[in-house]
């Protein structure tokens, strides 16, 4: 449990992840984003003989990991350094891997890192203590053009220019709730229906602070090179930028010979390293979204390693 006895995190698409990974009876499974361990718990329930290596940047995740006992080895670190982290606990090859990207409910609910636009908190937004860049630096020191670019690119917010200008005018900003108010004030009234008007800006700054897209590219690459033949990987993403990276990497891996069809013999020598297990992303059903609104934007893709 997190503080206030709220659950640390309710896992998203857990049954679907387990079904796609089809965890082996034994072997090592990597949970690259351990959080509250919801996916690990579901995997252990389906395959009690596995050993799980759970990685998370957030040292808070060590507590739910410890509660799962000896089946779980928790490693605090960034999954972009996965190869070294996994080898560091004596493992060279994994049978399956799951990534459940983004932030946990615990990280949003405790509010002391400025990740939530709903409550006060220092403008930090780092998911772990290893990062050097904080939201306070982005918000107070980056020039207006860079801020606009980040909000447009990582938040896909059509009002990026107005929001960046409002942030620069309001400097210095020290608190997340204060930032949320400034952003909300910059968004035209006609666009304020639906999600909170600061949602996209908070997402954008968090992605920049944690270099989330760079970490995803590197983490995916490492996981694929650690996967044994026949091993499976599942990734749950929460916005189109993440999903696009996963989709493209899986599609590239699943592409075999690229010779023109009229060539009698293959000259490119290329063979597919992956087999796609999901042609289209799996999304949560209505019941899951009603029970857990944070599942709303989730998309699950999976693939199987076929060769090295
Ligand atoms: C959505 S939560 C995972 C929840 C987990 N699957 C569960 O069921 O409880 C995402 C987790 O990934 C972690 N995380 C995000 N980026 C990371 C990275 N680059 N390296 C390691 N952990 C990361 C966050 O700290 C967070 O705890």
Keywords for this structure?
alpha/beta, 7 strands, single chain, Rossmann fold, DNA polymerase, domain 1, 40% helix, seven-stranded mixed beta sheet, binds S-adenosylmethionine, 2 domains, 308 residues
Shape, principal axes of CA atoms: globular
* Average pLDDT figure: 94
Text of the CATH class of the largest domain: Alpha Beta
Task: Look at the helices and sheets and give the structural class.
Answer: alpha/beta
Give the CATH superfamily of the largest domain.
Answer: Vaccinia Virus protein VP39
Low-confidence stretches: none
Tell me the number of structural domains: 2
The description of the largest β-sheet is: 7 strands, mixed
Bound molecules: S-adenosylmethionine
What would you say the CATH architecture of the largest domain is? 3-Layer(aba) Sandwich
Distance between the termini: 41 Å
Q: Helix fraction?
A: 40-55%
Going across the biggest sheet, name each strand in turn. 3-2-1-4-5-7-6
Tally the helices: what do you get?
Answer: 13
Strand content: 5-15%
CATH fold name of the largest domain, please? Rossmann fold
Q: What is the ordering of alpha helices and beta strands? A: HEHEHEHEHHHHHHHEHEHE
Q: How many strands?
A: 7
């Amino acid at each position: 449990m997190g503080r206030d006895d709220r659950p640390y995190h309710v896992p998203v698409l857990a049954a679907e992840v387990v079904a796609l990974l089809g965890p082996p009876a034994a072997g090592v499974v990597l949970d690259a984003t351990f959080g509250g361990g919801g996916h690990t718990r579901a995997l252990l329930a389906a395959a009690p003989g596995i050993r799980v290596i759970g990685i998370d940047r957030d040292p808070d995740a060590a507590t739910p990991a410890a509660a799962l006992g000896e089946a779980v080895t928790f490693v605090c670190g960034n999954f972009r350094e996965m190869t070294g982290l996994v080898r560091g606990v004596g493992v060279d090859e994994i049978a399956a891997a799951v990534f459940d990207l983004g932030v946990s409910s615990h990280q949003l609910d405790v509010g002391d890192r400025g990740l939530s636009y709903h409550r006060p908190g220092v403008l930090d937004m780092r998911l772990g203590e290893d990062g050097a860049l904080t939201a306070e630096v982005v918000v107070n020191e980056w020039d207006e053009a860079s801020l606009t670019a980040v909000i447009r690119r990582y938040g896909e917010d059509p009002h990026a220019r107005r929001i960046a200008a409002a942030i620069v005018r309001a400097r210095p900003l020290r608190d997340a709730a204060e930032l949320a108010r400034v952003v909300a004030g910059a968004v035209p009234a006609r666009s304020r229906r639906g999600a909170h008007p600061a949602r996209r800006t908070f997402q954008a700054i968090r992605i920049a602070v944690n270099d989330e897209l760079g970490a995803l590219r590197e983490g995916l690459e490492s996981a694929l090179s650690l996967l044994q033949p026949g091993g499976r990987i599942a990734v749950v993403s929460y916005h189109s930028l993440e999903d696009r990276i996963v989709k493209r990497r899986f599609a590239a891996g699943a592409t075999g010979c690229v010779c023109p069809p009229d060539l009698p013999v293959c000259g490119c020598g290329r063979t597919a390293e992956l087999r796609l297990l999901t042609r289209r992303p799996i999304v949560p059903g209505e019941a899951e979204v009603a029970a857990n609104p944070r599942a709303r934007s989730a998309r699950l893709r999976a693939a199987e390693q076929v060769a090295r």
